[in-house]
Amino acid sequence: MNPLGELEELGRRIGADVERFVREGTQELGQHLREHPQPLFALLRTLKPVLVIHDIAIVTRYADVLAVLGDDDAFGVAPYGTKMRALAGDFILGLDDSLQYEREVSILRLAAPRSDIPALADFVTQTSEQLIAERAERDGQLDVVDLAKQVSARLFARWFGTPEADVQSLIAWTMPMFDDIFFNVTDDTQIHAAAERAAGQLRPYLEGLVAERGRSGDRGEDVLGRLLALQADPATELSDAQIATNLIGMVVGFIPTVATALPLALDALLDRPEALAGAQRAAGQDDDEAVRAHMWEAMRLAPFAAGVLRRTRTDALVAEDTHHATMIPAGTLTLAATQSAMLDGDAIDDPDDFRVGRPARSYLHFGAGLHHCFGRFANAMQIPLIAKALLRRPQLARAPGDAGRLLREGPYPKSLIVALDR
Questions:
Q1: What is the pLDDT of residues 131-167, one digit of tens each?
Q2: Are the CB atoms for 412 and 260 separated by under 8 Å?
Q3: Residue range of the domain that includes 107
Q4: N or C: fewer beta carbons within 10 Å in the chain?
Q5: How much is the pLDDT for 31?
Q6: SS3 state at 317
Q7: Assign residue 321 a region: left if phi > 0, alpha if psi is -120 to 50, beta otherwise?
Q8: Using CA of residue 324, residue 325, residue 331, residue 336, what is the dihedral sign?
């Protein structure tokens, strides 16, 4: 056997050993992915880039992850669709490529257009600065997790047309629903029951709001008002129930995403004094693009999710024409590990380094392909602007002791307390 053949054979043997090792520890795999994903992903990228165990697959290299997310015929969104349908109805997140998907996403693009985003930026900045100033004056510190929830919930209320007085309820309802839809891979019955209880309150609340606004004739320049205006066109066939479903789907993805992503990213900055100083300079110079670049790089190194789930609708060959080509059988739950992809040295230069100014393709925080996160433009505005308001505080630092460490509750950041100048 020639040297190249020997090397390939050695790679196959090592890959088989890794597969056997992980198969024997399948029950611990999910917990390990949550607590220590990067070392495991690094191992898989090198030795078993496409790992298939029973009815689960993990895809870890950049090119292969993009291929999975771009193949809607082979990789469907059933892992999200089943739970979304049970909790909210037929929202776009849970719909595969179809005429129904095109119809629903077209309605949402008309009701919540990207062109709304710039006009909402001042609201996010003012709300963030007000809350930070209040906490600084009162306590000299604040919880970044709570700040993210409060600002995002108030932005949703302003943009979508729900009463601002109800933002605490929106936060309480959306977190368990997000947990069940996006993180409950093992179908934990307690997590699902909590999500059902939350949905049992959120849906009647929103259905009542839709009916009330419909009766009043108040359309207004918010998302709910636009949905009601679209409903007046018989061609849309848009019922009150479907309007409520769209609002549920949007708010469930809206608040928890920011409440997870922002604290993790800021925690990553606080661990890197040079990067933190650069972000603070950008904030002080009112350079929103530079702040966003720092936050996106922090989110690459500390992402809010390990990846995106799909379920194979057919047998699917991944990494064709490579030495790690792998057939994933139909019905396999597949993790397209975007976190791993963003650390793939074959696609990302010096992936372990904190480096602003990377090309946009380096960032897969919000997925890719047909189901590229609908709220990504709103997130690209609000996450950096909330962070900017914090970074402009000259004495920003972790609070003393354990309070200044990022604490988790399941997959979520529970608290991250930072000290502020009064």
A1: 999 999 999 999 999 999 999 999 999 999 999 999 9
A2: yes
A3: 36-419
A4: N
A5: 56
A6: strand
A7: left
A8: positive
CATH at 269: 1.10.630.10
| Helix/strand/coil for 333 | strand
Element (H, E) at 412: strand 412-415
Which residues fall within 8 angstroms of residue 54, CB to CB, at 6 or more apart? 23, 26
CA–CA distance from 171 to each of 4, 208, 310, 411, 419 (Å)?
56, 18, 27, 16, 24
The radius of gyration of the chain from alpha carbons, rounded to an integer in Å, stands at 22
What is the spatial distance between Cα 355 and Cα 284, in angstroms, rounded to a whole number? 19
Q: Is residue 92 in a domain?
A: yes
Q: How would you list the strands of the sheet with 397-398, edge to edge?
A: 141-143, 417-419, 397-398
Flag whether 8 is in a domain.
Answer: no
Q: What pLDDT, on a 0 to 100 scale, did the predictor assign at position 320?
A: 95
Read off the pLDDT of residues 270-296 as tens digits, 9 standing for 90 and up. 999 999 999 999 999 999 999 999 999
- For residue 67, give the nearest of 374, 368, 345, 376 by alpha carbon: 368
DSSP-derived pairing of the beta strands 333-336 and 308-312: antiparallel
CA dihedral 245, 263, 77, 196 (to 10 degrees): -50
Spans of the chain below 70 pLDDT = 1-36, 422
Helix (H, G, I), strand (E, B) or coil at 253: helix
Taking a C-beta distance cutoff of 8 angstroms, is the pair 273, 281 a contact? no
Q: Strand, coil or helix: what is 75?
A: strand
Give how far the C-alpha of residue 411 lies from the chain's centroid of Cα atoms, to the nearest Å. Answer: 12
Sign (positive or negative) of CA dihedral 54, 60, 61, 66: positive
**Residue 407 domain-assigned?**
yes
φ/ψ (deg, to 5) at 117? -60, -50
In the chain, how many domains are there? 1
The residues near 287 (Cβ < 8 Å, ≥ 6 apart) are: none
Token readout for 328 is 């994933």
C-alpha 250: how far from its chain's center?
A: 12
Angstrom distance (rounded) from CA 121 to CA 385: 8
